[in-house]
Design goal:
Blueprint (H helix, E strand, L loop, with lengths): L27 E3 L2 E3 L1 E5 L2 E4 L7 E3 L15 E3 L2 E3 L3 E3 L8 H10 L2 E5 L11 H9 L2 H11 L6 H13 L5 E4 L1 H13 L4 E5 L17 H7 L4 E6 L2 H9 L4 E4 L9 H5 L5 H18 L6 E5 L5 H9 L4 E4 L1 H4 L9 E2 L15 E2 L6 H6 L11 H11 L5 H4 L4 E3 L6
Parallel strand pairs: 8-9, 8-15, 9-10, 10-11, 11-12, 12-13, 13-14, 14-15
Antiparallel strand pairs: 1-2, 3-4, 5-18, 6-7, 16-17
Helix pairs in contact: 1-4, 4-5, 7-9, 10-13
């Protein structure tokens, strides 16, 4: 069962509850909070939201030795030395890389709708995708991913990971969850991830019976992480379904074109903070049930990881950052399921390059000052520089709005 804290207790490391007394001039009060809204036009107002590039962490009066800093975290019964969850993307995770990341202290999540569950030997296809001309990539990937998912391969891939002795995690989209979940559970998955561009607790469809998320999680004897969500209300509803964790993000990853294709985007600093606030309020509402917040999207470099935790994340889900490793199946390229959608692609295959081994990406040594190597070392140093010893404490760090254009 998910972790609990005493009733009425705020999340350790959460930001103080906002003081809503006397709203300042030009601001509007809603739902007992103060909102800094901007008038877009006479008929529409919008709330100012911030990306990770818009904020910065502020040093405090105390510093620490990085060796005294802990970045471990726990979800349900599973403890991890690193707050790193690999995104379920074929360019990031294979059964072998999931095992490698698990042995290094993180959590690898295998895409159970990807090439590894469609083909007995996907390696030649991964080679082909990496070599495709840009103008042919989307169409050819649509063809490759049209191969049906095979139940026996779902079972086989998860058993390969389990045989290595690491925590086993697999992901399905909401649309495919009911169809394939029995194979997933029978294979002995430890953590189950339901991941889509966005996931709601109240999906409405006139064509098919939607997934009843609350009933599904209640009946499943496995901790479930679900997302993405990018607002306070959406996250609160997901937490009420019984999810052990909520993924935060909507079309913000390196391979997404959701903002261009659908006009939808969620700046991650604000999204993580809003979902962390939902976690705090749900903790009170539920009498102490703690739901983990995992930033998923826009976390491409070490500074983004630092700022995700500063805004309230318990862990981060990494795609492009891990796709840069030499062991990654993408061969220096990165793509997600949106890139090969049969009707409306909302992503693309992007070249991220290869910067080092998985061990070097996580622990260094770094050979360039661009935030792509030694991700864990950078997080520890940022926490030590600001005087915090663990992730929960670091969620209380002071931040400022300081927009800049990264090089």
């Amino acid at each position: 069962m998910p972790q609990t804290l005493p009733p009425g207790t705020d999340t350790p490391g959460s930001a103080p509850r906002p003081d809503t007394r006397g709203p300042p001039e030009g601001r509007r009060r809603y739902a007992g909070r103060v909102s800094n809204e901007i008038e877009i036009g006479r008929g529409k107002r919008g709330r100012r939201a911030y990306s990770f590039d818009d904020i910065a962490v502020v040093p405090s009066r105390r510093t620490r030795d990085p060796k005294d800093v802990s970045v471990g975290w726990q979800i349900d019964a599973y403890h991890f030395e690193l707050p790193i969850v690999a995104a379920p993307m074929d360019s990031v995770m294979s059964p072998d890389t999931a095992v490698a990341l698990g042995r290094l202290g993180g959590l690898g999540v295998l895409d159970l709708e990807g090439l590894w569950t469609r083909y007995d030997s996907p390696e030649p296809l991964l080679d082909e995708i990496a070599q495709l001309p840009a103008e042919q990539a989307t169409r050819r990937m649509q063809e490759i991913y049209s191969e049906p998912i095979k139940e026996e391969l779902i079972t086989q891939r998860l058993k390969e990971i389990r045989a290595a002795g690491v925590t086993v995690a697999g992901a399905l989209s909401p649309q495919r969850t009911q169809e394939h979940v029995k194979s997933v559970v029978d294979a002995g998955v430890d953590l189950f991830v339901i991941r889509g561009t966005t996931v709601s607790a109240e999906h409405v469809s006139g064509n098919a019976e939607p997934l009843n998320l609350k009933r599904f999680i209640y009946e499943l004897d496995v901790p479930v992480v679900v997302g993405g969500a990018s607002t306070y209300t959406a996250a609160l509803h997901l937490m009420r379904t019984g999810a052990a964790g909520v993924l935060v993000g909507f079309g913000g990853g390196a391979a997404h074109t959701t903002r261009v294709g659908l006009g939808i985007h969620a700046p991650m600093a604000t999204a993580v903070s809003d979902v962390a606030a939902a976690r705090r309020d749900y903790l009170d509402e539920s009498g102490g049930r703690y739901v983990h917040v995992i930033a998923d999207g826009g976390v491409g470099r070490s500074g983004d990881i630092v700022k995700a935790v500063a805004m309230g994340a318990d862990a981060v889900m990494l795609g492009a950052a891990l796709a840069r490793s030499t062991e990654a199946p993408g061969r220096g390229w990165h793509w997600g399921p949106e890139a090969h959608h049969s009707q409306l692609p909302r992503g693309e295959r992007v070249e991220v390059g290869q910067v080092g081994t998985l061990d070097e990406v996580l622990f260094g040594p770094g050979r360039q000052a661009d935030g792509t190597l030694n991700l864990v070392g950078a997080l520890k140093r940022a926490m030590a520089t600001t005087g915090y010893s663990d992730l929960k404490e670091f969620q209380r760090v002071e931040v400022v709005v300081s927009p800049y254009q990264p090089h």
